[in-house]
Amino acid sequence: MKKALTAGLSVAAIASVAFAANSLDSNPNYQKLKNFKPKGVSNDQCLMCHKTTDPGIVADWQHSKHAKAGVGCVECHVVPKDYPTAFKAHPMQGANWTVQIAVSSVTCAKCHAKEVQEYLNSGHARGAAQWLATPKNKHGYLMTKLSYHYESLKGANDTYLVDGKTMEKGIRNDLPVYRANENNPRTADLNVANICIQCHGTIIKLDKQGRPDATTWPNDGIAALYPDGGVGNCLSCHSRHKFSAAEARHPMSCNNCHLGPDHPMKEVFESSVHGHIFETNEEDYKFDTGEQIPGKTLRAATCFTCHMSGINGLKATHNVSLRLKWNLWAPDSFLRTGGHETAGWAFWKGGGKVTDTTVTRGNPKAGNPNGPEAARADMKKVCMTCHQATFTNNYFQRVDAAVKIYNQYKAAANKMMKELKAKGLIKSDVWSDPFFKLYYYLWHHEGRRFRHGAAMGSPDYAHWHGVFQVMQDIREMNDIYNYRMKMLKKYGSAKKVLENEPPMPVVTHE
Asked: Could you give the CA distance from residue 357 to residue 69 in angstroms, rounded to a whole number?
């Protein structure tokens, strides 16, 4: 029964397909760093100062596998003098080397090429591009506008690849608070460093001496974009300077970002049977080994088990999208049809050049190159380490039904939104529009909770925090839609409809 559910190429074949499509060697900075041999510098020279100035950093490193293997400061922080992230003002300089502060995955790839390549083929490598504003990325444009110009009160200032006047368009003029930082944009930039970019990543900016700017660094965002073409720095999961694999395998590593009203994987896991077993039997889990074996290293699955571990014949992977049939974060759930060309790869290949193509290019449907059913077959193999085939097959039939029902709700919402936009019945300041806000909550909050609750076995998130609230959203959206269409017949002017609309409070379901 179990063998019958396994489909597609072997993981080894998958890896060869991925490597043919995307090569680390496409970034010239990786080639330069991989072949670089600094002269006249040792780890002991670094430790002479840092043992006193940064004892915590040194202690973390001393307890790491890196230290035991003889990998230290030089291997990660010493780069050619002309390297894009070189810190030219560092007090220690050599004939052919200097130090880098902002270390990207390019450095990690010198030793961990397989892991970096797998990561670059995953949905994680799209993290920064999902929200960085460019004219070709409507969702990213909207989210960047939200974080900079609304939440950080910036007003009219340039933001990445969009000019300030364009970005400011639609902001209500009767609320001058949104222009509070118009003449002090750095305050807004520093605030944004506290919010979106800490999980998603951003474009890491360095001054002429190579010092990272406070508006973008320190940053452990999953897909931060570095001047050397590096995407991410591996620190989202492997904390500096111990870089513990055991820490990265623990659910808390994922919980840094995957929690809250819009993507509560933490809460969904904790309220599932898997989470209950983990919370009450954590002593039975051995995160220091990559082999997650029921009865030996774990009692029930964790995030790492399902998405990354080498289990039941599968190979361990850093491509967290490889076993996913559906994309459940997106406004409309779609099948992950395979392919690996992510925005992270586009940036890597561009050697660190930020353009509208490098931050938008990519395949949001990236997953298993053999298609969504091959991905589902792999996930079923994970489940069948503990569960029988009938249990597993029945479970995923229910997951697919939840996705289908969500898509039916979203199709109804899309139809109403399309008609209202066509008739000019959506306010230019979308965050003041009750219909738009409900439309947004339906997919970004309630819809994500519904889908992930069903997929990860949390009944309350699938129901009361999920589909019940999606249903309420649709009812309220329909009421607003009908009212506006009725008033349009009365006034004959979309502008008059919106100007004369009574307050319509939006119930936010947190």
From this structure: 40
Location of structure tokens 């039997």: 281
Instruction: Spell out the residues 6+ positions from residue 266 whose beta carbon is closer than 8 angstroms to its own.
Output: 251, 254, 255, 258, 259
Q: Residue 119 belongs to what H/E stretch?
A: helix 113-120
Q: 241 preceded by cis ω (within 30°)?
A: yes
The amino acid sitting at 45 is Q
Q: Would you call 402 helix, strand, or coil by DSSP?
A: helix
Beta-carbon contacts of 199 under 8 Å, excluding residues fewer than 6 positions away, are 127, 221, 222, 236, 256, 257
> What is the secondary structure of 249-278 as a DSSP string?
HSHHHHHTTS-SSS--HHHHHHTSHHHHHH
Q: Which residue in the block uniquely carries the two structure tokens 């991989």? A: 34
Whole-angstrom Cα distance, residue 32 to residue 348? 14
Alpha helices in 423-456 (DSSP H): 434-441, 448-456
Contact by Cβ (8 Å): 374, 430: no
Instruction: For the chain, 510 residues long, give each residue's pLDDT as a single digit of tens.
Output: 333 333 333 333 333 334 345 789 999 999 999 999 999 999 999 999 999 999 999 999 999 999 999 999 999 999 999 999 999 999 999 999 999 999 999 999 999 999 999 999 999 999 998 888 888 888 888 889 999 999 999 888 888 888 888 888 888 888 899 999 989 989 999 999 999 999 999 999 999 999 999 999 999 999 999 999 999 999 999 999 999 999 999 999 999 999 999 999 999 999 999 999 999 999 889 999 888 788 888 889 999 999 999 999 999 999 999 999 999 999 999 999 988 788 999 999 988 998 888 888 888 888 899 999 999 999 999 999 999 999 999 999 999 999 999 999 999 999 999 999 999 999 999 999 999 999 999 999 999 999 999 999 999 999 999 999 999 999 999 999 999 999 999 999 999 999 999 988 777 666
Residue 91 to residue 79: CA distance in whole angstroms: 14
Which residues lie below 8 Å from residue 13, measured CB to CB, with a gap of 6+? none
SS (H, E, C) 175-232: CHHHHCCCCCHHHHHHHHCCCCHHHHCCECCECCCCCECCCCCCCCCCCCECCCCCEC
Q: Which residue has the tokens 């070709």?
A: 136
Structure tokens at 303: 């995030």
N residues, the chain: 510
Do residues 230 and 110 lie in contact, with contact meaning Cβ atoms separated by under 8 Å? no
Instruction: List, as one string, the DSSP characters of 359-394.
Output: TT-S-TT-S-TT-HHHHHHHHHHHHTTTS-HHHHHH
Global pTM exceeds 0.85: yes
